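for the writeup, i need someone to sanity check this before i put it in the appendix. the sequnce is what the collaborator sent (i think, or maybe the updated version? ugh). structure was predicted straight from it, no edits. if anything looks off just tell me and ill rerun, i have time this weekend
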Amino acid sequence: MASNKYGALCAAELCATYVPPGGGILVRGENGWLTYCPDDDPALGPRRYSADPDVSDHEPMVAFLHARLDEEEDTAGAAGVTHWRHWPARSRRVVDDHGELVVACSLRDVAEQIATWGPMSAVANIEARRMVLDLYEQAAVGPARAAHREAVRALVMAYRDHVDYDTAWTLRNRAGG
């Protein structure tokens, strides 16, 4: 039986989950290529998804971050949720799952950056940040919740130039340490 030797992102439709070496079930991805998908692999356990952010009230910092993530998700969705890749490999051209040209760049490094941070990667990144928010909101009061709060503050700092950003959310070095 074939096994996932190296670990990689799943290429199944709307997945893009990292599959560790040895994990995942071999399936045919949306683009026709074989890929290892963790969704049906009992050894990896059930897949976790973030909670719906509109279900409950949030403290202002969390609500602010949810609003920024919603904006990013809208932008990624407007670009079409597909995997982007180089074609031919290591070229200056980036194509989507359907082989349609997304962009042709004058520099290969720019094409690499665009292919790496295409819509599927953006959506996966947004989902991961939403899970951090969920972990914070579900943590019991105590040191674990305080640590999660610091992680959320670090995520929020990416938006410190936004007009609604509260400077009280900025992480600071503690005096004397």
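The chain is about 35% helix and 10% strand. The first strand starts at residue 8 and ends at 9.
thx in advance!!
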